[in-house]
Amino acid sequence: MEGEEDMIKLFVSDLDDTLVYDVNHMQKEDERALCWLAEKGTNICFASGRFTHRIDEVVKRFSFPYYTTGLNGATMLLPDGNLFHESSFENVVAQEIYRYIYKKGLADIVCANEQRYTKRKNEHHHNFEAYMGVHIAEIEALEEEFGKTVHPAKLFVFGEEEKIVTLDQELRDTFQGEAEVFISGKRYVDIMPRGVSKGSALKRLMDHLQIEANEVACIGDSFNDISMFEVTPHSFTLHHAHPYVKEKANHIVRSVEEAVMKLPLLV
Fold first, then answer.
1. I need a surface site. Which of 73, 94, 137, 207 has the fewest CB within 10 A?
2. pLDDT tens-digit profile of 35-55?
3. What is the average pLDDT score of the chain?
4. What CATH number does domain 91-193 carry, 3.30.1240.10, 3.40.50.12780, 3.30.2350.10, 2.30.42.10?
5. For every residue of the chain, which 3-state class applies, written as one string?
6. From CA 219, how far away is CA 15, in angstroms rounded?
7. What fold characterizes domain 4-86+196-265?
8. Which pLDDT score is estimated for 6?
9. Which tens digits make up the pLDDT trace of 207-257?
10. pLDDT > 90 in the chain, percent
């Protein structure tokens, strides 16, 4: 392989259904590829819709230092664990959107303070808790606490895939210009503060590391990864990704390992 002087300087990987499957399983080949890349001197960043601590639960097996982008860019951590950047919703906007998604009868969830909140749980919330192995706290007057005890960084809805696809378009039409809306998984639609995305987080990290777009590569499989694809020419997605996501990436691969092995050919 080429020496580190010819390697990509930053590699960003999505987690769920890209590097991680079934909440916390990772292929050994992908693990080894990332370790090899880090040994070559490439900075590694894990970018996900998850909370940063939920990212760390999966990737702390790695001995190399890594950057963390959580909640689609709302929270960013340096390799030493210190906070690098944090974003949250304007209270009025979050209240308006939350009231809208609450009426849908799906699992409406507010991410704030490293906790998940809802007004009142239904079967969809219970299904999410069981699948992810997490807890959602109930607060009856939830939206009234926005800006007081709860500072929303991300809102999302979990439910049947067909309903989520419909809701995604509804939210885009209704809150255009007020929020970033995208499907982050087959049963999820995420709503982020305006201007907050994995792509904006990647630009911030590039500025911090003082590197250019052609020195960066990224991989992801969902709509929330497209903003990263727009930042660098070295974008990868997976064969199982939605056709629209595949259109937006410059390379289609079967695994993180395959993407990493292609990197020396890009520089």
1. 207
2. 999 999 999 999 999 999 999
3. 95
4. 3.30.1240.10
5. CCCHHHCCCEEEEECECCCEECCCEECHHHHHHHHHHHHCCCEEEEECCCCHHHHHHHHCCCCCCCEEEEHHHCEEECCCCCEEEECCCCHHHHHHHHHHHHCCCCEEEEEECCEEEECCCCHHHHHHHHHHCCCCEECCCHHHHECCCECCCEEEEECCHHHHHHHHHHHHHHCCCCEEEEEEECCEEEEEECCCCHHHHHHHHHHHHCCCHHHEEEECCCHHHHHHHCCCCEEEEECCCCHHHHHHCCEEECCHHHHHHHHHHCC
6. 9
7. Rossmann fold (3.40.50)
8. 65
9. 999 999 999 999 999 999 999 999 999 999 999 999 999 999 999 999 999
10. 93
Residue 245, token pair as written in the block: 């996501």
Tell me the C-alpha distance between 203 and 243, whole Å: 25
Contact 72, 78 (CB under 8 A): no
| 130, pLDDT greater than 90 | yes
